[in-house]
Amino acid sequence: MKLTEKLKLRTRLPHTMPKKNIVPTGLKSIFQQKWLKRLDRYIIVKFLGTYFFAIALIISIAVVFDVNENIDRFINNKAPLKAIVFDYYLNFIPYYTNLFSPLFVFIAVIFFTSKLAENSEIIAMFSTGMSFKRLMVPYMISAAIISAVTFVLGTEVIPTGSVTRLRFEELYKKKKSADYARNIQLEVDTGVVAYMERYENYNKTGYRFSLDKFEDHKLVSHLTARRVTYDTASYHKWIIRDYMIREMRGMKEVITRGERLDSIIKMEPQDFLITRGQQETMTSPQLREYIRKQKQRGFANIKEFEVEYHRRIAMSFAAFILTAIGLSLSSRKVKGGMGLHLGIGLALSFSYILFQTISATFAINGNMPPAIAVWIPNILYLFIAIYLYHKAPK
Fold it and tell me: pLDDT category, 253, cuts 50, 70, 90?
């Protein structure tokens, strides 16, 4: 090859050969916004994978313990295997999964993040210029997914399954539901107040029944009956027996007596006969309508229903708060690995569930408004999350 051709080749080589990448890969990927998106997917997949793995592990243990505790009852009550599997445990799993969702969120965040911190991956992320706030983005996306799933399960799926689960428990675990009620008084319509001294559910009959009708705050009609029976074949139909009606017409009083009177009264046994766990069998729209109707009727024993309605909403927001606490707590690399983080996380998650139960008890048995009682744990742990966020490594 001639010298001139070699010189031409050398002058062309730098232009034809690809340029060497002198920009660090991490910084270049930040500029191109590709590495961050890949990191988001990585964190979301790991977070949700750890969350569902924790659910599978703990619920499996819970099912084993429940089987061991109730196997004698199932055998003695001759519970069919199909009913045990599909009616009970198929509804048992989503119910307790949703109940202990805060615990699973905490375990997932702390376990996964502590692993990242132990492997110095979080330090590598911060060294590229990533802020702690930016690191929280995929965690909050994961928390939003968990919150949405928790809300849908709690408001629509679990209440439907709880009907079957509670029926199974009533038949095969000997947990009897309420079968009578005393001193029932409620407003069944505008200006119409019904009263029963006692109601027996086994024969759908109430005793010492009265029905008062008011117009302009004045009593215009007073019906009394020895007993009243609910007709299950018709909606709101009651059969009134041995009755007497007193009607006030100005200065006159008209009395009517009879042995039987079929009447439409806007009340049903479920309106005043509250069974164990009845609030768990209602979807959120049904709960809202039931609470509104019972308040309108002047029925006071509905705090458990109000607590359940507000608890479903509060539990959904808890995923964001507990995720922030878990990330702030476990993002720092410490000696001894994840043991300390996991211990603190479990203590905080169990205390959250315990505090939520205690505050709900105060609402049911005390004078605390149910909405405030249910949201107090979230408000308290929100302050803890803010404090830990400011103390987290930046």
Answer: confident
Structure tokens at 1: 């090859």
pLDDT value, residue 228: 92
Q: How many domains does the chain have?
A: 2
Query: pLDDT tens, 95-145?
Result: 888 888 888 888 888 888 888 888 888 888 888 888 888 888 899 999 999
Token pair for residue 8?
């031409």
Long-range CB pairs of 297-303 (<8 Å, 24+ gap) are: 297/186, 297/187, 297/188, 297/267, 297/271, 298/185, 298/186, 298/187, 299/186, 299/271, 299/272, 301/274, 303/363, 303/364, 303/370
- Report helix angle 35-76 to 101-118, nearest 10: 140
304: Cβ contacts below 8 Å, ≥ 6 apart: 274, 279, 364
3-state helix, strand, coil in the chain (%, to 5): 65, 20, 20
Domain that holds residue 171: 23-176+274-394
- Token pair in block for residue 288: 């809202």
- The answer to whether the beta carbons of residues 268 and 236 sit under 8 Å apart is yes
State how far the Cα of 156 lies from the Cα of 182, in Å rounded to an integer: 32
Q: Which amino acid is at 354?
A: L
* Lowest pLDDT segment from 101-110, 155-164, 272-281: 272-281
* C-alpha gyration radius of the chain: 32
Tell which of 213, 248, 272 closes a domain: 272
| Whole-angstrom distance, CA of residue 180 vs CA of residue 205 | 10
pTM, 2 dp: 0.69
Cα 211 to Cα 11: distance, rounded to the nearest angstrom:
107
338: tokens are: 């994840």
Q: Residues 6 or more apart from 129 whose CB is under 8 A from it?
A: 27, 30
Residue 181's H or E segment, with its range, is: strand 180-189
Tell me if 228 sits within 8 A of 196, measured CB to CB.
yes
Which residues lie across from 254 on neighbouring strands? 247
Of 220, 248, 272, the position where a domain reaches its end is 272
| Both structure tokens of 137 | 């983005």
